[in-house]
Write a structure and sequence with these properties.
The chain has 140 residues and is an alpha/beta fold. It has a single domain, classed as 3-Layer(aba) Sandwich (Alpha/beta knot), CATH 3.40.1280. The chain contains four helices and five strands, in the order βαββαβαβα. The protein has helices spanning 15-26, 64-76, 94-99, 113-132, and strands spanning 2-8, 31-36, 50-60, 81-86, 102-104. A five-stranded parallel sheet has the order 2-1-4-3-5. Helix 2 (64-76) links the parallel strand 3 and strand 4. The radius of gyration is 14 Å and the shape is globular. The two termini are 28 Å apart.
Length: 140
């Protein structure tokens, strides 16, 4: 299953971009990253057998283990791509929320989109590590 981060806003050459790249390189699954302008731009069409996850402050808060379990379940069901959408400063509209398969949040606080992208990349690395039985993730 391919993991696809689709983010509004350009991350550019920054420490956050380096952090995102560091985690992306570690993910052993097929991976794609798409940047869109803050406003406008065309969202890539979802391929058949895909899932769409929106990072949204109203979303469900998952543990790393629950997140890994969900990705593993989708992979095992034959999902070809899971798309993770990170919005711009105003977040996502009601239509996007209603069409998504899942809304997730990284806590109750609002995070800048470049930090959310780094946190998502790390959690994708962590989830794939959990599924592979890698010792990176240590649960307490």
């Amino acid at each position: 299953m391919r993991l696809h981060i689709i983010a509004r806003g350009k991350i550019g050459r920054s420490p956050e971009a380096e952090l995102v790249d560091r985690y992306i390189k570690r993910i052993g699954w097929p991976f794609k990253q798409t940047e869109l302008p803050d406003v406008g731009g065309t969202l890539p069409e979802a391929p058949p057998l895909s899932r769409t996850v929106l990072l949204d402050e109203r979303g469900k808060q998952l543990t790393s283990e629950e997140f890994a379990e969900l990705l593993g379940k989708w992979r095992d069901l034959g999902v070809r791509e899971t798309r993770f959408l990170i919005g711009a400063a105003d977040g996502h509209g009601d239509l996007a929320r209603s069409e998504a398969d899942l809304l997730i949040a990284f806590g109750a606080m609002t995070w800048p989109h470049i930090m959310a992208r780094a946190m998502l990349a790390e959690q994708l690395w962590r989830a794939t590590s959990i599924l592979a039985g890698h010792p990176y993730h240590r649960s307490g």
